């Protein structure tokens, strides 16, 4: 069977405001949780922003976005996924009036995208809750967060209703299970956080997300809004039924988040989990009806797969596995220990589509690696990242296989289309982009941009609508 991508497929790239914008206090921006996370997702936050936090400068996208959007246009991007920094719009998060300079920045950014025919795909909350909301309210544990989020989404929907038609509510919402401060602004340390409080916070996010869907469709029925989950297929180590059940239970912890967004109610397996763990989710009047406002599409990140086993002697967690799971001995891993499994992408796409029959959007996929800027025989600075080309090609072929399976796919945005600061490690040496940024972990560098070999390859992918992959 001939593999192909549908006409109108949305090719592009993805970033997050906190990982590339910089300008962390400029034009009225308040502090976010990311501003006090200088060492990445697994470290304790600092009291105030410190100079060793690479995200405070990022790649200075705030001042250089026109140069970068032009490079994206040169590659042929149809869509650009970015996020709005909540604390640029509401510096503390609980104000009644937004910050006009923050709103204007995104006006200008979206205008620049449209100048080149690029559609913005906007994540409303991407790992950067206003720090005041984390410290004053303990983040999403507090029901008041629903009101703050509603005020925020109404503000940006009305402001950008003629500039943005694709929206995502929360980035990798299921990551709150492992990283509650980064993902949910929860100030209580993970080791002290009760399951009751954690899942009540998740419920508040579900309500806020469904409210965002409801409001979105009211303001502009042509808007399309999706959830965004961290996908990670989980295989049983052996055909032993105990391993199969263990994999199913682990998978439930992640699928729960997509289930509520796509179906509009809590699944039975989670009701059992709550009962067995003494968890009682408090529903405010009207919550059940609000949750019925389901998303238009399912978006997700995909980087790796894992396996599970009921054998405690074999439960050795993979070094880079974000949401648990055991390292698969049949797969190679990246420099950061993330197992590379292109076929897992096809598998998870079929799983999502079979489960929901809603369009899918792959909004993160890519390879973090150490790239070398070298001078070629012509005196030109080049980056020969064939390993990235091979990784992306292998995954995109599996996307085409899933499309041939009958899966409806809206588009694909490669993660970190321009080098940015890693969320997991807060490093710049862990590079994902098609565009090399001359900045390093010691803060040195010119911030100049250079096209990598993968830049020209991806340009050909988009020009041929994926046909050069086969």
Taking the sheet with the most strands, its summary is: 8 strands, parallel, barrel
CATH class: Alpha Beta
Secondary structure category? alpha/beta
Q: Strand share of the residues?
A: 5-15%
Give helix and strand order, one letter per element, not per position. Answer: EHHEHHEHHEHHEEHHHEEHEEEHEEEH
Quaternary structure: single chain
Radius of gyration over C-alpha positions, nearest whole angstrom:
21 Å
> What is the average of the pLDDT values?
95
What level of helicity do the residues show?
A: 25-40%
CATH homologous superfamily identity: Glycosidases
Q: What would the CATH topology be?
A: TIM Barrel
CATH architecture: Alpha-Beta Barrel
Give the strand order of the largest sheet, numbering strands 1, 2, ... along the chain: 1-2-3-4-5-7-9-12
Number of strands: 14
When the domains are counted, the total is: 1
What does the overall shape look like?
globular
CA(first)-CA(last) distance: 12 Å
Provide a count of the helices. 14
* Low-pLDDT sequence parts: none
Question: What is shown here, in short?
Answer:
The chain is of the alpha/beta class and 470 residues long. It contains 14 helices and 14 strands.
Give a verbal description of the structure.
It contains 14 helices and 14 strands. With 470 residues, it is α/β, with parallel strands linked by helices. An eight-stranded parallel barrel has the order 1-2-3-4-5-7-9-12, surrounded by four helices. A two-stranded parallel ribbon has the order 6-8. It is globular. The mean pLDDT is 95.
């Amino acid at each position: 069977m001939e593999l192909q991508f549908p006409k109108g497929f949305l090719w592009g790239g993805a970033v997050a405001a906190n990982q590339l914008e910089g300008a962390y206090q400029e034009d009225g921006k308040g502090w976010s949780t990311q501003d006090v996370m200088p060492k990445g997702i697994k470290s304790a936050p600092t009291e105030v922003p410190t100079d060793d936090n690479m995200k405070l400068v990022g790649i200075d996208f705030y001042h250089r976005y026109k140069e970068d959007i032009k490079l994206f246009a040169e590659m042929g991007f149809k869509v650009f996924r970015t996020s709005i920094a909540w604390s640029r719009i509401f510096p503390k998060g609980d104000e009644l009036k937004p910050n006009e300079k923050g709103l204007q920045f995104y006006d200008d950014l979206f205008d620049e995208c449209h100048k080149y025919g690029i559609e913005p795909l906007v994540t409303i909350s991407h790992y950067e809750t206003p720090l005041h909301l984390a410290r004053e309210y303990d983040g999403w544990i507090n029901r008041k967060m629903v009101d703050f989020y509603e005020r925020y989404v109404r503000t940006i929907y009305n402001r950008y209703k003629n500039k943005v038609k694709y929206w995502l509510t929360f980035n990798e919402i299921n990551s709150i299970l492992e990283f509650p401060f980064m993902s949910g602004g929860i100030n209580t340390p993970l080791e002290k956080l009760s399951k009751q409080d954690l899942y009540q916070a998740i419920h508040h996010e579900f309500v806020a997300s469904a409210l965002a869907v409801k409001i979105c469709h009211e303001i502009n029925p042509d808007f399309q809004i999706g959830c965004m989950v961290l996908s990670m297929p989980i295989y049983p180590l052996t055909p032993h039924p105990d391993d199969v059940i263990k994999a199913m239970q682990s998978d439930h912890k992640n699928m729960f988040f997509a289930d509520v967004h796509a179906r509009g109610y809590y699944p039975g397996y989670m009701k059992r989990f709550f009962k067995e763990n003494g968890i009682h989710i408090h529903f405010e009047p009207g919550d059940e009806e609000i949750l019925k406002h389901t998303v238009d599409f399912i978006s997700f990140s995909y980087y790796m797969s894992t396996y599970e086993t009921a054998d405690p002697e074999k439960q050795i967690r993979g070094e880079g596995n974000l949401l648990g799971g055991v390292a698969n001995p049949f797969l190679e891993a990246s420099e950061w220990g993330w197992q590379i499994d292109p076929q897992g992408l096809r598998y998870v796409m079929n799983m999502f589509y079979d489960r929901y029959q809603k369009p899918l959007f792959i909004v993160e996929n890519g390879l973090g690696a150490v790239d070398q800027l070298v001078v070629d025989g012509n005196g030109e600075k080049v980056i020969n990242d064939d390993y990235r080309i091979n990784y992306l090609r292998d995954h995109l072929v599996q996307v085409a296989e899933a499309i041939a399976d009958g899966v409806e796919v809206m588009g694909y945005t490669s993660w970190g289309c321009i080098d940015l600061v890693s969320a997991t490690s807060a490093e710049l040496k862990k590079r994902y982009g098609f565009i090399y940024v001359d900045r390093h972990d010691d803060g040195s560098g010119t911030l100049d941009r250079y096209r990598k070999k993968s830049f020209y390859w991806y340009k050909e992918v988009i020009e041929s609508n994926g046909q050069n992959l086969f």
